[in-house]
Amino acid sequence: MESPCILVCSIDMKTGYCFGCGRTRDEIGAWTLYTSDERRDIMNSLPARMETMERKPRRETRRTRMARERVSGA
Question: Residue 57: pLDDT above 60?
Fold first, then answer.
C-alpha cells in the first residue's frame, strides 16, 4: 500500500497537517481504510498542503538517520 509517510510524524498546530507527509491526524489514522482512489486523491493534495506550513521540524527524521547509518556502516 502506497503511503506518503516519511517517519516524521509531527503535527503543525496551525494547519493540522503532519510536517512529514502533509496528512491530517484523521487521514493518518484511517489511511488503511481508504480506497486506492481516496488515498491517491489525498496524496495529490499533499504538495499544496506542505506549502502552507511556515516551518519544518528541526529534528532528524528516522528515515534520514537510518540512511546515514547504512552509508556509514554503523
Answer: no
Q: Is the pLDDT of residue 40 over 90?
A: yes
Name the more confident of 74 and 53. Answer: 53
Name the nearest CA neighbour of 22 among 47, 1, 54.
47
DSSP string across 1-19: ------S---B-TTT--BT
Domain residues for the domain of 51 are 1-74
Query: Of 65, 55, 61, 64, which Cα lies nearest the Cα of 17?
Result: 55
Q: Provide the number of structural domains found in the chain.
A: 1
Q: How far, in Å, CA of 54 to CA of 62, rounded?
A: 22
State the amino acid at position 13 in one-letter form.
Answer: M
Q: Say which amino acid occupies 39.
A: R
Distance CA 15, CA 34 (A): 22
